[in-house]
Hints:
about 160 residues, mainly beta, Porin, 8 strands
Amino acid sequence: MKQTLFILLLSASTLHASGLFSVGHKNFGFNIGQDSAYNNNYTVIGLNANYFPVENLSVGFGYQTWLGSTPSINQINLPITYYIPLEMMYTPYVGTFYSHTFIEDPYQDYDSYGGKIGLTMQTSQSSYISFGWVHEIYDDGINSESRGYPEVSAGFSF
C-alpha cells in the first residue's frame, strides 16, 4: 500500500513538474510592504532568488531592507519551499526558513526561523503571484517571541 501511494505521488509530481517548479528552473521575486519595529513604522522592500534542484522543491536566498526610520534594519533569508504538485489553478506550498537580521547600533542583530503556507498562481508562462501566511520565531539570545503575518509576492521564472 505504501509503495502504491508513493508511486501515485511520484506520478502526480512528474505530471505537474513542467513549468515554474521543474528541475533547474530559477525564480526571481520581489516584495514590498510595511512593518513596525522599535515603535517605528517602515516600508520593507525585498528581492529573492530561488533554484529548483528537484521537482517542486526550491532553495533560495532573499534580502530585505527596511526604509523610512531608524534604526537601520536589513535581513537575509534562506528559504526552502515545497510546491505540492496538484493539477489546480492554484498550487499550494509549504516551506521553512532561517533569517538573520542586521540592526544598527546600539541594538543587537538577531536570528529568526519559521514556516509558511500558501497558494501560488501562475499568471503567465513565466510569472507567478503567491499569497500565504508566515509564522516566525525570533531569538535575540535573551528573549524569544513569535508572530504571524500575511505574505504576498510576485516574480518570474526561467
